């Protein structure tokens, strides 16, 4: 990973760069290619995205956020309109699933930006060899 030089690369808002899926260092280059694949490096400033590994974080935040918002919308729709159950299978549930997919990109961008700003690295474990003694 190329370390940022503070004078060259001022700290950008993780929400601004992350939610727009832009490079956390320059804020201009794209972070993702395709739907959710992280690029190898920023095409604008050359930042190596090797540090970026949000794992299941985006899925957790997407399910949690859409779970709360989707259930509120689902219950409001159910209690006010009282549609037949097939309407929920045809409209409500696909909308909730689609919303989960649509928010994955911004959540992934935000988590990668947070990893960059906080210099997150994979944990390094070392055994002290005292188990069982
Ligand atoms: Zn960049």
Q: Give the overall form.
A: flat
- Helix fraction by DSSP (H/I, runs of at least 4): 40-55%
The number of helical segments is 4
Work out the oligomeric state of the chains in this entry: single chain
Trace the largest sheet across and list its strands.
1-2
Low-confidence sequence ranges: none
Main β-sheet, in a few words?
A: 2 strands, antiparallel
Number of structural domains = 1
Mean pLDDT: 88
Spatial extent as radius of gyration:
20 Å
Cα distance, first to last residue?
Answer: 40 Å
Estimated share of beta-strand residues: under 5%
Helix-strand sequence: HEEHHH
Structural class: mainly alpha
Bound molecules: zinc ion
Beta-strand segment tally = 2
Please describe what this structure looks like.
- The protein has about 130 residues and is mainly α.
- It has one domain (about 5-115).
- It contains four helices and two strands.
- It has helices at about 15-20, 55-80, 85-100, 105-115, and strands at about 30-35, 35-40.
- A hairpin with a 3-residue loop joins strand 1 and strand 2 (about 35-40).
- Helix 2 (about 55-80) runs antiparallel to helix 3 (about 85-100).
- The mean pLDDT is about 90.
- Zinc ion binds near residues 25, 26, 29 and 42.
